[in-house]
Design goal:
eight-stranded antiparallel barrel; mainly beta; 274 residues; globular; single chain
Length: 274
Amino acid sequence: MSEKANWISVDELSHGFGANNLDNVNDLAGKSFNFNFENGWVIKHDFITESELNWTIQSDEKTYTESYTCVNPRSGIYFIDFEKKSEAGTTVSLALDLNKGVATAVISVMPSREEIERPILYRALSGENLRAVKVDFARATVDREFTADDQAIHPETDELLNWRVEYSYTDDEVYEHIYLRQNAYTWNCLKGNEVGLCDTDYCSYRKVAEDLYLFVWEEKIIPTVGVLLVDFQAMRTCGKIVGYQGEDTDQLSNFKVGAKALKLNATAYPCLQK
């Protein structure tokens, strides 16, 4: 007899996360920054309060107001997250480094019902991405003109590759990650709501500072995006997970996460050694 796979919604997943989250901070309240993106956007962010911000694209001068969360994993470095009210299913996560005057925006877009129901087999045979979620990265300088050769901009990195790391979101919600390749990792639930489930999904890695990484994953079974700052000095993470609350596609579940990290081992492949 085959075992039943107990995949759960993102909203159900959120109920087990929170004990190891970083507290929100109000450091940015009352401050304004111009983000100069590599694609030419100049977007002003006014942090009105500790939970409300205005952002304005200077080319059209239209202002949007959003609710945001902000945590401070290291001095001068912030993880900011908000849902865009003007664009259905869209959230923005910002890794903001005021020490270097740079930021990386992660724009996550959840799929439509039609996109979700398109079979993975059809996607594979037609050469499409297996995942239905969409993620875009946008690098920016803060309060100065963007130049592509700016050494402070967060680069892609391979420094996480081959590491196996255990993440404890609570004592009862524990996962391991195995960072396999530049765009692939495996997750495995050791304890918690998804125990017994594992998968290999698309991912991206960027280096924010020494031993501090922006890690983003995109799941193909249950449409999900995770955005984390992984700090191997403090041995903890902060960030968010976003997906739909349930089977309906009219309501997002976008929530903070944070975990204690434990490096287990790094694999050295003899066939790849020079």
